[in-house]
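The records we work with from here on pair a chain with its fold. A complete example follows; check for yourself that the lines match position by position.
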Amino acid sequence: MGAVISFLGAAVALIPAIYFLTLPLNSPTRELFIQPMLGIPFILYFTIAGAIVTLLGLILFIRAARAPPEAAYPRVVRQPAPVRIEAPRRPVRSRPRPRPTSPSEGEIVAEIEREIEEIVQSGEAVAEKPVEEEEAEERPVVEVVNKGQDMVCPHCGALNPLKSTKCAKCKKKLYTLKEGEPSCPICGAPLRLSKRISEDLFTCGLCFSELRIPQEIRDQLSLQ
């Protein structure tokens, strides 16, 4: 902005002078430019005004160049929380086996035993799936409400990509995660760095993602 103002001031000062030099000696406009006003030729007022505007533009340009850069903040993109959709279960069917036209008694017995064994194995596999799903549902899950896009270094304030463990600018570790400690599902930082922003919402201390932390994990980390 300061450079533009300086350019305009220089134009105001130089254009009338160049135009004056191109006029013929007996031109009325030339006589108007050299006519004194308050003891100063009229054309000098353009030069003085242009110099003032140019000086103002230089001052603004120097101030803008010396101004400290604004602190960068991570971008937060709002997106709906993921919804889990379970695929419908298909009934297990035993595949029919081709039988000989005239099987013997031993072959018939062996065939029956194989079919019974397949039915038993398929029934055990179907019975194990609900148990695994129930165990997964019992574990507390941290729900992501709003996902952050960058991680802010707590030492120098520089922005780093998600899942970073060391700052790309100051080379210091972003966080220290203990073994078995709950972490942010977006950036991997420990949840003990989270801050409460509402009754049931917390924000990650490094990527600023909005999280809904279960009460069991809150009690474990003593989050207030």
Observations:
- Residues 140-224 form one domain.
- The longest strand covers residues 143-148.
- Strands lie at 36-37, 40-41, 76-78, 143-148, 151-152, 159-160, 195-196, 202-203, 210-212.
